[in-house]
Design brief:
The chain is an alpha+beta fold and about 90 residues long. The chain contains four helices and two strands, in the order αβαβαα. A two-stranded parallel sheet has the order 1-2. The longest helix is centred in the first third of the chain and has 18 residues. It is globular. About 10% of the residues are buried.
Length: about 90
Amino acid sequence: MPTYAVTKDAEGKTVRYDDWMQAGSDLIDLELAKDDRPVFLYGLSAGGMLTYHVAAKNKKVKGIIGMTFLDQREQQVQDETMLNLFMSRIGGR
């Protein structure tokens, strides 16, 4: 995903969660253009939630294998996964 590992993104461009969803969906379409094997997505932690959202966006996904779906819209999830309570309540917005 953009901003992770060795990916390069356009300088000055803000990468949002929706961009990750679109990148995942685009990759699915690209892979299915090469062969017709079914696509399953795997994600761990926040990646588990991303697999869910990408599969919801791209109906060609046959299934997901996700672990620890973290929906950061939930206050409890924010409180328990952020560095501290201040970041959860003030800094993470």
